[in-house]
């Protein structure tokens, strides 16, 4: 449904170029939920914005249904009806002066969909706000955090999209509400056949919702594959370090060195300055960019040496 093919995105930063996304291959299949995980600053949100057409890539392509994304305004408008964004903070993404009805109706009005009231009511009902008419005239401050996030999801559903891009969809919610929103996303996938890319730093969320996981570090995918394989048998040292912070992990891996800086990408493996098991090849020999594949794969020199 949605694919990044050798995608690169650059920004000017302090007189240098920051490679926020640097040769990424990632695919989201029909009816599939893919989790994109990694620490802050690794390029997850930039990749998501580029897949939505909000950033122009410096190289590579975004493809939807195997067709390259066109950046002409008319084509982008049509594309964004098919691929919708669910933001992290429902309080910040909802206008406090707009009612729930106005917030959900904004997309259908832009796209001139007929029978607006029915579209809004159906979207709210699918998002779990029932009866929908009860919420029409309410304002965001009158809702709970979970209800506000459901309104944001309803705003995306009102356009009947094929793909949702959810950026940290439960990060701002209480633990008691997170499970409800994750269950809703799974239900939408099962009932509507929606595909989803879920951007998160929470590996527990990825375990509960995703069919596949892609682990990102300093602008590149360093490991990807089926969720159970990647999270139960990680191959890349970075993935192992991320998993080690979970409470049930038998050993903790403390990363050394500086946090990722996209303006100063190291030679060789870009993770080697912080890696616990670095070897000579890691410092000098570049790694191949991982393709978009279904099976588990990792970009690590140790795997080649072991093989």
UniProtKB/TrEMBL annotation:
Record flagged with keyword Nucleotide-binding: yes
InterPro entries: AAA+_ATPase, ABC_transp_ATP-bind, ABC_transporter-like_ATP-bd, ABC_transporter-like_CS, Oligopep_ABC_C, P-loop_NTPase
Transmembrane residue ranges: none
SMART domains: AAA
Biological process according to GO: peptide transport; transmembrane transport
A Gene Ontology molecular function term of the record: ATP hydrolysis activity
Domain ABC transporter: 4-243
Key words of the record: ATP-binding, Nucleotide-binding, Transport
Family: Belongs to the ABC transporter superfamily.
Protein name: Peptide/nickel transport system ATP-binding protein
Originating species: Kribbella italica
